[in-house]
């Protein structure tokens, strides 16, 4: 049986930041899965809308790959007999328009639909859906330029549609509102203001295997009520000496896997599954929660993507329960294609 041909969809049609972020995670995935028997192909989109098909994600190979417009890229892709696409784009066009393209081409892809990605890219819409399903969310409001907050501090102000904690500010005094809103509006036309929930912050991943929702171990983040009450961009990504994006150090000082015996684990997993079902997720999902001093989980936001890189959150959670990166990818492929189409154990040589 021929090797499964997987197309990594990488880059960004929006800006260089998301282009570099996508390349960082996709390159990490390709390196970690290099010893599998999959046939990996790469499609790389740049902010000018051009497509390239480099042999690797090194800057040299990307520069040498011939740029081409969409119609030419479609012709090339449809002639390659692609079995499945692994989306690695984190900008909103990448999570929506480019996934929808593969729906039109009738080429299956791992991960959630463009319609759902569009909804969850808007934090307030996501909160409204899970709240309607009975999940607790912090009190919040959406503001546009010129609007005045009505929620008393302490509050968290953030762009309604950005990730990696870009533009996020904890406001402890009403005098800080203007500066915080100005920061948030640098990243989006709307800002969400929500009551700050003091306590622990965790993430919970869900994977789907044989149509069953499986809750993964929680990942908790180092916070301090005085010095570090919220997570920031610096906790997630960093600028390297050569100007590229890099991963912020992940160690047990900044984050750690919560002991499964911690009573909060089961409680959060149950809420995360409810979020997964309310939103209509498929294959996998990832949610952020605050845990108040009484042990009550409060939904913050959804992050419905996984690059299948070793440093991806879902990959780290799966590893903690003995699910290797290769097995995690195989499970996602199986759920996407269906076990009847391919003998995935044979194809992947696991």
Automatic annotation (TrEMBL):
Keywords: ATP-binding, Ligase, Nucleotide-binding. Signal peptide: none annotated. Pfam families: Dala_Dala_lig_C. The keyword Signal does not apply. PROSITE patterns: ATP_GRASP (PS50975). It comes from the Bacteria. GO terms for molecular function: ATP binding; D-alanine-D-alanine ligase activity; metal ion binding. Residues 127-334 form the ATP-grasp domain. Belongs to the D-alanine--D-alanine ligase family. This is D-alanine--D-alanine ligase. It comes from Nostoc linckia z8.
């Amino acid at each position: 049986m021929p090797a499964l041909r997987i197309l990594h969809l990488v880059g960004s049609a929006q800006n260089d930041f998301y282009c570099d972020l996508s390349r960082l995670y996709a390159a990490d995935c390709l390196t970690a899965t290099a010893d599998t028997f999959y046939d990996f192909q790469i499609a790389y989109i740049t902010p000018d809308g051009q497509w390239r098909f480099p042999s690797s994600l090194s800057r040299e190979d990307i520069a040498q790959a011939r740029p081409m417009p969409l119609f030419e890229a479609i012709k090339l892709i449809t002639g390659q007999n692609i079995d499945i696409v692994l989306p690695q784009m984190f900008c909103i066009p990448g999570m929506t328009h480019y996934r929808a393209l593969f729906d039109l081409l009738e080429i299956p892809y791992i991960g959630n639909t463009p319609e759902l990605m569009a909804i969850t890219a808007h934090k307030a819409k996501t909160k409204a859906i899970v709240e309607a399903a009975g999940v607790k969310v912090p009190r919040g409001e959406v503001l546009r330029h010129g609007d005045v907050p009505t929620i008393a501090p302490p509050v968290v102000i953030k762009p309604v549609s950005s990730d990696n904690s870009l533009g996020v500010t904890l406001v402890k005094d009403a005098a800080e509102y203007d500066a915080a809103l100005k920061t948030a509006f640098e990243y989006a036309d709307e800002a969400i203001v929500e009551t700050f929930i003091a306590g622990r912050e965790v993430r919970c991943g869900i994977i789907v295997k044989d149509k069953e929702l499986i809750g993964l171990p929680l990942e908790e983040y180092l916070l301090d009520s005085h010095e570090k009450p919220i997570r920031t961009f610096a906790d997630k990504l960093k600028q390297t000496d050569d100007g590229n994006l890099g991963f912020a150090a992940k160690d047990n000082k900044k984050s750690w896997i919560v002991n499964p015996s911690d009573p909060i684990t089961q409680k959060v997993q149950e809420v995360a599954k409810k979020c997964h079902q309310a939103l209509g997720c498929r294959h996998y999902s990832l949610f952020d929660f605050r845990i108040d001093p009484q042990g009550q989980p409060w939904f913050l936001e959804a992050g419905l993507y996984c690059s299948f890189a070793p440093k991806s959150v879902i990959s780290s959670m799966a590893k903690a329960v003995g699910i290797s990166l290769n097995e995690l990818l195989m499970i996602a492929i199986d759920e996407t294609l269906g076990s009847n189409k391919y003998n995935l154990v044979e194809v992947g040589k696991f």
